[in-house]
């Protein structure tokens, strides 16, 4: 397999994946905010609201951290990851 570090397709694929990953984070935060806004009136006591806020906050915090870690990993090894994909796509053609 040839080294494809200068292939502009790698940068393009990485930019697209990064864009969609960051979009997923924004959508996740917006969905959690919307659901919390709609559910808080039915929660009852303030203790339940605090539990919902803390647990929801932890979920979106860990999901955000995992997506950012994935982006960081892809940026470190993008030539190997995307180069292999492009190699097999080129062979398929």
Which features does this protein show?
3 helices; 0% strand; 84% helix
Helix count from the secondary structure assignment: 3
Strand fraction band?
A: under 5%
Give the overall form. Answer: elongated
The largest pleated sheet is described as: none
Radius of gyration, Cα only, in angstroms? 20 Å
The total count of strands amounts to 0
The helix/strand class is mainly alpha
Please give the share of residues in helix: over 70%
What's the arrangement of secondary structure elements?
Layout: H1 8-39, H2 46-76, H3 78-92
How would you describe this structure to a colleague?
This protein has 93 residues and is mainly alpha-helical. It is 84% helix and 0% strand. It is built from 3 helices and no strands. Helix 1 runs antiparallel to helix 2 and helix 1 packs across helix 3. The longest helix has 32 residues, at 8-39. The two termini are 15 Å apart. The mean pLDDT is 89.
């Amino acid at each position: 397999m040839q080294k494809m570090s200068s292939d502009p397709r790698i940068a393009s694929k990485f930019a697209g994946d990064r864009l969609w990953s960051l979009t997923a984070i924004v959508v996740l935060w917006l969905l959690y905010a919307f659901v919390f806004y709609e559910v808080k009136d039915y929660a009852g006591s303030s203790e339940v609201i605090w539990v919902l806020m803390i647990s929801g906050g932890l979920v979106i915090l860990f999901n955000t951290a995992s997506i950012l870690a994935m982006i960081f990993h892809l940026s470190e090894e993008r030539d190997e990851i995307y180069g292999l994909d492009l190699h097999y796509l080129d062979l398929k053609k």
